[in-house]
Amino acid sequence: MASEGLYPQLDEAALTQFVTALEGGGTSTLSAELAEEASRARGLIQLSKVQVPVDGARLDGALWQPKGAGPFPVVVMPAPWADLGWIAYAAQATQLAVKGYIVLAYTPRGFGKSTGEVEVAGPLDVQDGSAVIDFLLANLPAADPSRIGFLGDSYGSGISLLVAADDPRVSAVGALSTWGSLFEAFHENGTRHVASVAALEGAAANARLSKRTQWAFDQVQNSESISDEVRDWANERSPLTHADKLNERRVPVFFSHAWHETLFPVNQTLELFSTLTAPKRLDLAVGDHSSPEMSGLIGLPNRIWTDAHRWLDQHLKGADNGITDAQVVSEVMWGKPLLPTLESHPDWEAATGTPARLHLTGPAVGATDGGLADKPQNGWTTVLSTGTDTPATVADAIIKTGYAEMLGKPKVYPTHQISRTDAAVWAGETLTKTAKVRGIPRLRLTFQPSAASASFVAYLFDAAADGNASIITHAPFTVRGATPGEPVVADIALQAAGYDVPAGHRLILVLDTKDPFYSDANQAGAKLTLSSPEGKPSYLDLPLA
């Protein structure tokens, strides 16, 4: 039975049976891949369950030890945000141990069989990571104290980065589907990410959230605006806040992220990646949170996990494997990305295209949609009624839409069904050659709200000739304290994209005022008047390679 929450494809029963097989049990119930892995590993490693005492709690974990005298490099793996805890890493930890690593995977406090309360990568979680290192070095003479790495997915990745910033014994980090700024992940352009927090709460339904954690989640879910206290809570838990410590010690960090990440949107992780000055690498992939790494968690070959292993091999074992030859490796999306193209770049700047400015124009006579043109057009206005959702949405569901996208079945957006009363639409000309979108598109929009607060979401689509489209990127925006009827100029960074729009298709920009993924500051009956006045033009800067 697949686990629920953020890991719908992860089979906890199969991974538990795999652990049993490593301990001497049979392999007949396992997949061919896991059965082969268990049979290969049993003669090379020893697996034992452990309980690590920490401040006010005990962490449930498992220890993989290669047979031999050592010394062996060490990898610590804090588990993801899920009930199954360290079991999620059973296949990957085994592969690392077979290669000569001591591995300790543990369930963070408050989840699964670990005691304590969930602190969302707070100070106690950071202390716990250091306590795990203490436990290893005190009990395993074969553990090399000069070669310690942290490797985690999702929740475990954020904890890994924060421990590395705080503990000088950590020599390398692998952070898969991670976050840079928890505040930006929860609060983008003044807009609260209510669906992502709801997903986290749902996935932690059986966990024990601390009162402060529940308070912070409630604030993001229900408060009209985010307080400084919530900002401070989130910033303390943000690796970006502690980037100077990572830079001071030059900790090598490997990142992976999905283009259409709905839990921790990619831009805030890109900011952390760009801030770090030590050896670093970013693997970008098609999909949503943790979905690009999922096949590796169930024991199948996986590019992301392979690169994470190579990263540790180079920085903990000194292997000359070429993993640092490219800083950025990205899967390029298109409408059906089952077999995406892979691109390598020496750095993020080289991966980013040159901005091409597309001006937002008014509808032609007899038309409803504006245009995306190479020259500005002033004097037009488009009026939207707020508060009604349209078929333009971020996704059907967090995580699950990303799995379908990976399988070549992206969400289809029938752009002809989008109400032009409740949304504004601008369509570009039919492309005569592929448009290679690489980087962060930026939208500048002048609008007049009829009320003091307003919210909207901008979506950029790749539309085929029949009007059916795939999403390239999007971003929300909220203004508060505006003067009704006075123009507001919004400068909005859409989420980064690596996407090829084929010849024969066209770009479509859609703006509507409601999306279930985000909070809504619109007042009942309010309207938005969009325009492009001289001196404050509205345009889209599209980075094209």
CATH architecture descriptor name of the largest domain: 3-Layer(aba) Sandwich
Annotated CATH homologous superfamily of the largest domain = Alpha/Beta hydrolase fold, catalytic domain
What is the subunit organization of this protein? single chain
Total number of strands: 26
Highest CATH level, the class of the largest domain: Alpha Beta
What name is given to the CATH topology of the largest domain?
Rossmann fold
Proportion of helical residues: 25-40%
Distance between the termini: 44 Å
- Radius of gyration, CA atoms, in whole angstroms: 24 Å
Structural class: alpha+beta
Our count of domains comes out at 2
> Helical element count?
15
Judging from the principal axes of the Cα atoms, what is the shape? elongated
Q: Low-confidence runs (pLDDT<50, min 5 residues)?
A: none
* Major β-sheet profile: 12 strands, mixed
What portion of the residues fall into strands of 2 or more residues? Answer: 25-35%
Mean pLDDT reading: 95
